[in-house]
Amino acid sequence: MELIKDLGEHELLRRLRKYCHPNLVGDDGAVFKVSEGMELVVSSDMLVENVHFSDRTTPPYMVGWRSVAANLSDLAAMGAYPLGITVALSLSPQTPWDWLESLYQGMKDCLDRFDTFIIGGDLTGGKVSAITEWRCAIAITALGEVKANQKILRNTAQTGDVIVTTGNHGLSRAGLEILLYPEKYQDLQENIKQKLILAHQKPQPRLDVIPRLHPYAPITGMDSSDGLADAIIQICQQSNKGARIYLDKIAPCAEILHITDDATALKWTLFGGEDFELVLCLSPEKAEKLIKGDRPLIKRIGEITEEKPIILIDNSNPDSEVLLDSNEIFNHF
Amino acid sequence: MELIKDLGEHELLRRLRKYCHPNLVGDDGAVFKVSEGMELVVSSDMLVENVHFSDRTTPPYMVGWRSVAANLSDLAAMGAYPLGITVALSLSPQTPWDWLESLYQGMKDCLDRFDTFIIGGDLTGGKVSAITEWRCAIAITALGEVKANQKILRNTAQTGDVIVTTGNHGLSRAGLEILLYPEKYQDLQENIKQKLILAHQKPQPRLDVIPRLHPYAPITGMDSSDGLADAIIQICQQSNKGARIYLDKIAPCAEILHITDDATALKWTLFGGEDFELVLCLSPEKAEKLIKGDRPLIKRIGEITEEKPIILIDNSNPDSEVLLDSNEIFNHF
User: Fold this and answer.
1) Phi, psi dihedrals of residue A171, rounded to the nearest 5°
2) Which pathway is it part of (chains A, B) (predicted)?
């Protein structure tokens, strides 16, 4: 087995170059253009082994895919199109080359899907400066561009705005459960199992939705990387508003209900995280048009209120009111 | 003693916000403008405790200063002016708050010197997502802008170009030596000791020189973060040229000769690294004007040749020819 430490820096850089933008030269920095009239959006992330991913649940290809997806999702959450990413790595010298190759292949495949590239990093400086005796850490900075009036911010929600989400929530968390306890789910239908695992291992940032939002700008929102509940709470806090969310509109997917009880399924749907969907707020008229054009991908889940609390409304039980609170969100279920 | 883990994420972010750009809001990404007609320059770095710095030789304030200086130097090496940096951190929960505060103060003081800011990072996402049980890792991405025709690249050196450097080399390495073996240098003159230690702990990226280079664009070059010899070799390799370097023009500083023998002093001067000076190549006419206007900061050390080898020329011993080679640079001394 080839180990990183046996390859030497020069050979390592040579091998990794094919995963990067073809124009990437070994200079002190990468140079590129932001389109005229566009603003630059920058987002940084550090993923650490055994904290953000583990070999147990995530093969290196998937670690690469997910780390890129998370960063592209941050761009989508701002309404921005990707210009490229930079990658800085801290690796153990004992890391097998195969592991690193799979990591980069995963990054590249996710980038390819969205026509973007690795444009720089600690590799381009001519040194892999961060080889340590320790576990892997991956620092990614995503660069994107957006027209000023098409920026999606968190703090601009208005009373009466309709709250919509793309896609479904809780699937990634359900997939993780299957990966953590495979023996428990060995009799599960294969197509359900694969769908949930794929949701966890190869999430899709919602860049596909961005062009369809342009006619309705400006829109408030963010991604649901830390969970649907977190996104709603962040938007309300930063906009100094509250919200009413309809429980029947955020009912867990059938696939999730296949593998767990109702209460757990709702918990995963609200707090699971890493589904990388968008949670957006816009006026009722705009929301109606957007939903009409994008059914069933985009659906209405509630509305922004002037009063602060975020209330979960159960239509089948009109007397019940569950509050969503940032300090206690996990205590409600 | 306050530990990171006892502060909680919200309080930690609140405390760190004062070191960031005042307009920084907690959104998925930071948004800013690149000036019209300018290209974007991006450079990423990861610094890992006990690999790139250690508490033994570098207090946290200096770690912060040096990590920012290294990244701003990458921008200077491209001829670019800083727009800001992003910072992503991996910290042990056992990290004392005081340590983190000093780290950020060091980063901020270095940024202030060059009128720039922390504009984003893993902090802005509303989570310190990378707290681990392990040593500290700091990932910095520096963003800068440059006019297309003022870019400084490594691969454009021409035969006959004069090679110049800013400042002095080897001082940072000498400062490290004093920090590593303080007992050995306890009788050293205080002003020399302080100068060398400062060169190691608070290096100055050469952004001050960039505006003075504009009249002579385009210029070839890079910074000497990995050593003077490395910079010369990188430029020659990427430009497919060789060089003649005059040993008397790269003679070690008096301060270095105060603390070590001639051979070691020359070794530190050529290979020490982390002086963050610029090594530049330009036509003899342009070089003459640049040096004239900036003496003694900028000085001529050699010239680019068509023939590949990089020759160190000792005028006092015309028969000697020492070759500088990327695979053997350490073996020549």
Assistant:
1) -65, -40
2) Cofactor biosynthesis; thiamine diphosphate biosynthesis; thiamine diphosphate from thiamine phosphate: step 1/1
The answer on whether A275 is annotated among ligand-binding residues is no
Pick B32's closest partner by Cβ from A39, A80, A135: A39
Q: How far apart are CA B233 and CA B252, in angstroms?
A: 19
Give B321-330 contacts, CB < 8 A, sequence gap 24+: B324/B229, B324/B232, B324/B233, B324/B245, B324/B270, B325/B233, B326/B233, B326/B237, B329/B229, B329/B230, B329/B233, B329/B270, B329/B271, B330/B271
Q: Which residue has the higher pLDDT, B190 or A19?
A: B190
Asked, for residue A205, whether it belongs to a domain, the answer is yes
Quick check: ipTM above 0.85?
Answer: no
CB contact under 8 Å between A42 and B141, yes or no, is yes
B323 in a structural domain: yes
Chain A residues with CB inside 8 Å of B125's CB?
43, 45, 74
B40 contacts on A by Cβ (under 8 Å)? 31-34, 40, 143
Q: Residues B247, B251, B252, CA angle at the centre, nearest 5°? A: 145
**What pLDDT digit, counting tens, does each position of B102-155 carry?**
999 999 999 999 999 998 776 533 334 444 445 678 889 999 999 999 999 999
Task: Read off the CATH number of the domain in which B289 is found.
Answer: 3.90.650.10
